[in-house]
Each structure stands twice: as structure tokens, then as C-alpha cells.
Amino acid sequence: MIVNEIISKDSKIKFLKIYELILKWLRLFVKKNAKHQLILFEEIEFFFNNLDIDLGQIDLICEIYKNNFELIKNVKDRHLKKFVTCIKNFGCQRKFLSFFEVIQVCRNEYILDNQAKIIDYLYLFPLQESQETLCHVLCCVRRENEGLVFSFERSPIMFTNEERMIKSQFPNNLYGDEPVDFHIKLLNLFIISQNGTEGFNLNNPRIKKIFSFKFLLEILVRTDELFLNKRQMNAKQKLKKAFSSVVESHEGHSKKKNEQFIKEVTKLKPKVLEFYSKIYFRTPEKNYEKFNTIIEFLQNFIRNEKERLMDFEQTFFTIPEFIDYYFGKVLPFFNKYIKFIMKDELLSNEEGDREDNELLYFIAEILEKNLGNLKNTLNADQEENLKVFFSNYFEITEEVNNKIHQCFLQKEDAKFEFNESKIQPEDFQFESESFISWKQFLDLVLHADSLENVIELKKSWF
Description:
- This protein is mainly alpha-helical and 462 residues long.
- Among the domains are: 1-211, no CATH class; 432-462, no CATH class.
- 61% of the residues lie in helices and 3% in strands.
- It has helices at 9-30, 34-41, 44-47, 57-65, 69-72, 77-90, 98-102, 112-129, 131-138, 162-167, 179-193, 197-208, 213-221, 230-243, 252-280, 288-311, 320-342, 355-369, 380-391, 398-406, 435-447, 451-461; strands at 105-106, 109-110, 140-143, 147-150.
- A two-stranded antiparallel sheet has the order 1-2.
- β1 (105-106) and β2 (109-110) form a beta hairpin.
- The chain is globular and about 70 Å long.
């Protein structure tokens, strides 16, 4: 139907919209319902068709598997291969990684076999094929003697047949690369794959071999524009111009490229920080040579975060994104740095005051001074991160502990607030439909010439 030249593009768009609504309907049908998930799983192969146009098929596939132990434990290799093939053929789209995320955990229990498959299908199998294939699948390039580094280049889209050319005309096509979003999703997959004791023992050493260790540190210390609004960014640019030399015209392209890289770093940094903390800071570093390589990067990162906190000292407690970043990612990094590096025997022979310790103490003072402003802003994990950080510099008296606890967002205080308009359709799921009714409906959907008629027929069954 999509490639039929007789049918107008507008008609095709309407047809796809109907299909999109039906897939959304089916997603609600299986949501949080193991019985319905098994019903729709019988037709799972159908939903793996035409994944290069995003009508909700991947979201539906993920919802069919989500928290269903029977399905997740028996995930098919051909389905994993299908998504890797999509990356190869269509581009590095984060959507193609969603399925890998869903199958790793079921109701807070990590599935070790599937955690292993993440590394197998996204790293080992492509590597066995060729270095070029591996770089293509992970949207990376190889840095000599280091490992893989992220590529931010968008590969040209090659349409190998007429069908793809036609599909590319629709706005919801999944052709081409979206490097930064893909990298963020990829890092999150690897973090999940080494969660749990068994997952860590199996995958943590393997993950450490994939990316360039130095490249990740470079991202952490790069200039970014986190939490700056448009007015602040414009002021920052004016300040740069005032103190910079005249830029020759032939340097314009390089300058524009650097500005784009800053934007990419801004999006990447929070996830890279989480990745570094959870992958490399899980155990003490006892390699002296490696330690000497990283210490300057890490101390520069601490210095930058101290300056960031000073810049936002009057307002940071009003910015939810800043709270999530600083108390959810930066403080855990600081805590592990103090535990595994500052208190490690590698630094025990240093004399005098340490700059990194002074920087961290300065940060602790700013946060302690703002405890009153942080009231009811932190979740449980963020509160614990703050308490651990303070314990390195202050005595946690009952008074200090109470002040910290006041920062905890008491969600139970707000549980009686009810606004019906805030309820979204996505929050609902079908629970009372009969097996036969939905089997009939699904059969009609899969084989019908007119989906509108199917919908009307389904309505008559209620």
C-alpha cells in the first residue's frame, strides 16, 4: 500500500495514522496484563514488519515483553538480530535499542542470560564480523591504542530500493543517525547489563574493554552549557567575543563545529558521568599507571563542578534538572572519589593540603549553607548521597541529620491532591476484555483491507 503510486501521499498518511492508533490501542491492551501479553505474543512476528517507519510497533513489542517473566526468559535470538540489523540498515536510532533495555530486568530482578546478550549482540557478534561493523553498530570510531570513541558524524542515508525511498518521505521514518541520543541509550544499556552481583562479575570487565577510558574523561571535563537558559548562553557568548581575538573567515567552519560539539557534550555529560561512576568506580583502582593517567582529569572535573555550583548558588535549588544532576549524579561521583581515591593508599604519601579536598570541602560548605533552601526537593537516594557526602566533612549530629532529612520530598503529604485533568490515557490498561473478542479483533486487523471497518466492528462488540 505504501509503495502504491496510485494512492496519494495524503491518503497514505491517513492510513498510517489509523494504524498508529490501533497499535497504541493494542499497547494499552497488554499494559500490565500478563494474560493479554501472551495473547498478543502469538502474533509477535507481524509487529516486526516495517520497523523503519515508527508507528508504535517497537513500543508495542516492548510492552508485550515488559515485566513478563515467561516471555523475557525465552527471548528469541532472531528478534535481537532483527534490531541489530535495523541499526545496520537504517541508522543508529535510539528506538532500535529499546527492546534490549526491556529484556534485562523483570519486576526488579535482573535476567543474567539477557544481560549477557547485550554485550554479545551489540559488541562481540559485530566485532566477530568486522571492526567496521562494530563501529557502525555502536556509532563509534576506533582510537588507536585506546578503544572506541563516540562518532558524532551522521552517515549519509543510502536508499537501496524504491520502497525505502518512498518511506523516507514520511515524517516518522527511522532512517539516518541520531548519534548523541543513541549514545545515551547505549550507555544506559551497558549500565543495566552489569547491575546485580552476577551481572557485575560477568559484564563489568567486558564493558571496560569497549570504550576509550580517556575519551570518557575528556567528555567529563569539556565545556558544557548545562542548565544555562538562552539569555545566559547569549551573555556567555558575548563575553567570549569580548576577550577573544579576531577569528579569520576560514576558521568559521571550525568554530561552528566546536559550538555543535559543546551542545553534544551538554546532552551527553550527565549519562557519561553516571556511566563512569557505575562502571569504573565500583571497586578501588589499584593500577598506579592508570591512576596517574586519570587523576588530573578527575580533579579538573571537581574544579569545574565547584565553579558550576558557585555560578548557580543563588538559584540551583529552584531548578529540578540541576537537583537531579548534582544530587543524583555528581555527589555519588564525589563520594566514590573520596572513598576509592582520596582515602586510597595511592595518595597516602602526599604531604600538605590537597587541592581536591579543599574543593570538595568548599562544595560541602555551599550545600550545607543552602539546606534550608533544599527543603522538600530531594528523593530518598539523593538525600542519602548528600548525607554520605557531608559525613566526609561534618559531624552528622542529630541537628544536621534533621536538616538533611527536611530536604527529603515528603510525597505522602501530597497524596491527597487530586487533579483529574492530569490523568493521561497512557495510564490506563484494558482488563476486562474477553480472550475471544480480542483474538477476533486482532485477526481482522492483521488481514483487513479497511481498518476503519475493523474499528467500527470492534465497537459493536462492546
